[in-house]
């Protein structure tokens, strides 16, 4: 038994979609041809099913890198070979707005965890074939505006007495901020599996005002739906290329 996910060893599919929110796991699972819940411990809900004949596991990792890293490690231990994060993000690019999507090529490691795993010079990069498959899948999604680029993974969400470095990374052409991709990309690279991410924008946060954060709007739900469609179709494409 994997102790944090509380699922049997060897029960994880080769293809895995992950997200922060356990409720989103069900939202994704409802798109599958069939599914069953195989575990639900803490914030970690895990279901397994099939999409167009490809076995896929959907799992939640909660908010923030330390908890998510546990999930990524156990998913890999359990059999994952390709992990795609289907998440939300704040835009750091004035041209990428609420309801748009971001495909991550890599992540800035402002996460406070991965420097305890490997020196900071080690890059947090998405797998090229996952990025390419997501982009190809997006060609089949209607009414979508997306950008492929770097994201910032930050552990702080609400600022303290220090400012969050959002303007700084916006000025270095980082496209969006979120809270788990760097750990996913570093751990995937260390363990020799593929990873990528597709993220729905829930606000432009260059001049960050956390009081304006509202991921519960229709425009965000619609973008998450598009991200799910692209991620599932990317899985089918990658499986067909094996
Ligand atoms: O929508 P998810 O996948 O949770 O992703 C984003 O949303 C959470 C913040 O509210 C963080 O987990 C961040 O990375
Ligand atoms: O980390 C996150 C996730 C979504 N939106 C944000 O502004 N930040």
Automatic annotation (TrEMBL):
Which Gene3D superfamilies is this protein grouped with? Nucleoside phosphorylase domain
Under InterPro entries, the record lists:
Nucleoside_phosphorylase_d (IPR000845), Nucleoside_phosphorylase_sf (IPR035994)
CDD domains from the UniProt entry: UP_EcUdp-like
Q: What's one Pfam family here? A: PNP_UDP_1
Task: Report the EC code(s) recorded for this entry.
Answer: 2.4.2.3
Q: What Gene Ontology terms describe what this protein does at the molecular function level?
A: uridine phosphorylase activity
Ranges for the Nucleoside phosphorylase domain?
Answer: 14-228
Name a GO CC annotation attached to this entry: cytosol
The record's top EC class is: transferase
Quote the catalytic activity from the record. uridine + phosphate = alpha-D-ribose 1-phosphate + uracil
Q: Name one GO biological process term.
A: uridine catabolic process
State the name under which the record lists this protein: Uridine phosphorylase
Organism of provenance: Anoxybacter fermentans
